[in-house]
Design goal:
By secondary structure, the protein is an alpha+beta fold. The protein has two domains: about 70 residues, Alpha-Beta Complex (Outer Surface Protein A, domain 3); about 80 residues, Outer Surface Protein A, domain 3, CATH 3.90.930.12. The chain has two helices and 13 strands. The longest helix has 22 residues. The chain is elongated. It starts with 8 loop residues before the first strand and ends in a 15-residue tail after the last strand.
């Protein structure tokens, strides 16, 4: 039995959960999320808790049991608290600016890079224009947007210049040594 899959998910006050077939919709103070869970798993709501049960012990269903529970728990957390992801921009002249639903990034290329934020994701840039804070209710979407922004200029292996996650540790390579 999946250790994660068998844990019940507590429904906090202000959160409304509806089930229709194999679709679950979670509505809370920050917004609404919906997801179609896979066949072989059953989601039920009992006494302010959500319980995920698998129909049989086939390998596929065992693999999806804990995943389904985690995704539903992330939906409940997202509509109540929301999620944040912080990116740091490191490099001389590297900066970001938010213009409506776009982020304008200066990353050392010959032109500024324009990144359009998807619906439901908001970005805030700090005073120094070197830190981007992404926020929203969908954990998967936040992670994908952060990965897309990081891929515009990955951290350099020698100096560490580029876009990185806050708290990301880089192992920098040593450069050339001078002649003796």
């Amino acid at each position: 039995m999946s250790r994660i899959g068998k844990k019940p998910i507590e429904i906090l006050s202000g959160v409304n959960v509806t089930l229709a077939g194999n679709t679950i919709k979670v509505k809370g103070p920050k917004g609404e999320l919906g997801w179609s869970f896979p066949q072989g798993t059953d989601v039920s709501v009992k006494d302010n808790t959500i319980v995920v049960v698998r129909s049989n012990d086939e390998k596929k269903n065992r693999a999806l049991h804990g995943l389904t529970r985690s995704l539903v728990a992330n939906m409940v957390d997202g509509v109540t608290k929301g999620y944040q992801r912080v990116l740091d921009i490191v490099g001389v002249g590297y900066r970001a600016q938010v213009q409506g639903s776009k982020i304008m990034l200066t990353l050392g290329y010959s032109h500024p890079v324009e990144f359009v934020l998807p619906e439901g994701i908001t970005a805030v840039v700090d005073q120094k224009q070197t830190q981007i804070t992404l926020s929203g209710i969908d954990k998967q979407k936040i992670g994908q947007v952060a990965a897309d922004l990081r891929s515009l200029r990955k951290p350099d292996a020698y100096k560490g210049k580029g876009v990185r996650y806050a708290g990301e540790r880089l192992k920098l390579k040593v450069g050339k040594t001078g002649k003796k």
